[in-house]
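> @MW can you paste both from yesterday?
MW: sure, first one:
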Amino acid sequence: MASDNPNLIWIDCEMTGLSLERDALVEIAVLVTDAELNVLGDGVDVVIATSSEKLEQMNPEVRAMHADSGLLPLIPGGISIEAAEKKVLEFLAHHTVPGKSPLAGNSVGMDRNFIARDMPLLNDYLHYRTIDVSSVKELARRWYPKVYFAAPKKTGNHRALGDIQDSIAELKYYRENIFLPHQ
């Protein structure tokens, strides 16, 4: 990996809700791509156990989403947050340099907040810069509506790994249709 063009760390998290005060991180998936958006390695996808209280307080919409995706019944058998963080860091050590690779994904600000709260070693590993595909999507919607409306449909089913794969495909699409080389 060239240090002047570090790989991208793609992360998606699933939570019991969006409140940092009361909700839990229940799934994290990580992929790494090079600058050309080629996926390196198999990545990590783990379900994280949480308390029955956290599961009981989920709002009905989130509960239905996690039930429909198949995640909900897997949560009680998940691994600890510490074990999940360790698996992620072990994977990243093979493909990235600490502090050099930006976090990438869709609406990754919320994911970063939960990572900062629950996985401080991972948070410190990530570069401070972020590549948020949702921002590109919002700009495309405003400036290139034809490109926006022709974007690939999401297939991730609100599971972390599928959502990351969708994010990578979406950024590839915008790269091919908006970020064109100057002639």
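MW: second:
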Amino acid sequence: MVKISKIETYSLLIPDFDSDACSSAQDNFVVKIYADNGLYGIGESDTNPWGVKAIIDSPGTHAMGRGFADILIGKDPRNVEGLWHELNEKTMMTSRRGLGICAIGAIDMALWDLCGKIYQQPVWKLLGGSKKNFIIPYASLLPEGHTLNEYSESLVNKTIKSKKLGFKAAKLEICIKGPYSHNNLHIEDDTEFAKMVTLCRKAVGNDMVLMADVAYAWSDWKSALKALNMIKEENLYFIETPLPIEDLEGSAKLASRTDIRIATGEMLQTRFECFETIEKGRVDVIQPDVGRVGGLTEAKRVCDYAEDRGILVVPHCWKSAIGIAASTHLSATTLSCPYIEFLPKELAESQLRKDLVLEELPVIDGKIHLPEKPGLGIELNEEKLKQYNV
């Protein structure tokens, strides 16, 4: 029997990080899980890397707070779903939600990668096989700039560049209002939001799919609806996170009053929060982040639930090519996933996004073809892993 022999955790950070920026690609958490046959799997989670590292590295002291290593070392890594349940159950005091679920998510991702390497199969085959021949990534575009004009110009330029790179779809990160405004812009006039959408649409024409992420910009559905009515002619595929996460009633009211698809889910944890958001929030698109929702095991459960109910799944992914690979394998297994989020390294500010993986899954003519290499199909740049490890 193959057994888990060692767990290594890494907190990564670029030296020139900007705490006012909206990009979480400036840091990362990576875990390696080794088997006694010499193979290892890798996983990541989009969360505070020091916090999740501390949870995984911590020893257990009682029945409801076992240590992660205590649970995993000596176990068969091929029992991925069983280990997910055991981790969730035996670390309940720290892992019901929050950083603990992020830890389970990264570990689960690494276990699936390891299993693929053990069986010499790509992860999508282990998850049940593919329902499509290729995956369509959308370019996720976070502008640069410290003024409104700089931000707008950067967004238009990145939208044009993404089309030249061959992407068929792009998401406009218009984070200029609300609690997560990029570089403290805090622009309250929604006409500025509408202008940016219109400028980007005019720049690339109608043959490119455009979406927009406003990072929880509006505090109530009436304000959101008023803003969305300004852009109803621009044919957005969806509007992401228009309202606070907990405002499911407002989400349902907004969804029933606009033709633009409502998308959310990047911060949701476990299938249960996703199910509740689908049912009570009446969203059109659910966006689980593989590492944050609880790993590929939990994300696949969300996909199955959504597919049964006609809800689209577009996984959130912002960290690195590790998460992109996980989203790719997940997307292959369901017909409900039309796109995955993809931060192009050519348009990314963070050097960590560009350096962490030696050879990421290629985008060819706007598509990612199904990976055939074992596991997630990617390899860490060990030199850069050490360089950015803090």
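> thanks! The first strand starts at residue 4 and ends at 13.
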